[in-house]
Amino acid sequence: MVLERHSPVLHLVQMVRDESHRFAVTFHRKRRQMRDRASELLEIPGIGERTRQRLLQHFGSVRAVQTADAAALSSILNKAQTEAVMRHFHPELHPEQEPQAG
């Protein structure tokens, strides 16, 4: 089907094409960002794939895990894992202990 260059119908079809492409690209970027963000949990020592899945299933997102307090995390994780997650997301609350001279 050939449409004239200055046809309003051609212009409409181009606008629909451009909008659908923009939507698809935005969706893909958001999905990729969520996938990459979810892997941040795997950077935490003691957190593996299964634990990551449990955390995401319970809290719904990495941001919710990040804002969760220790009590909420400990309902899903053991003590060492809870401390590791808190240290990862809130290093200012858990300064590394310096070895004592002695």
Features of the shown structure:
single chain, 102 residues, DNA polymerase, domain 1, 5 helices, 0% strand, rod-shaped
Q: Given the helix and strand composition, which structural class is it?
A: mainly alpha
Tell me what portion of residues adopts beta-strand conformation. under 5%
Shape: rod-shaped
Distance between the termini: 86 Å
Low-confidence stretches: none
**Helix proportion range:** 55-70%
Fold and architecture overview:
This protein has 102 residues and is mainly α. It has one domain (11-89): Orthogonal Bundle (DNA polymerase, domain 1), CATH 1.10.150.20. The protein has 5 helices and no strands. The model has no long low-confidence stretch (mean pLDDT 86).
Summarize the structure.
With 102 residues, the chain is mostly helical. The chain has helices spanning 8-38, 49-59, 62-67, 70-74, 79-89. It is built from five helices and no strands.
SSE layout and pairing:
Elements lengths: L7 H31 L10 H11 L2 H6 L2 H5 L4 H11 L13
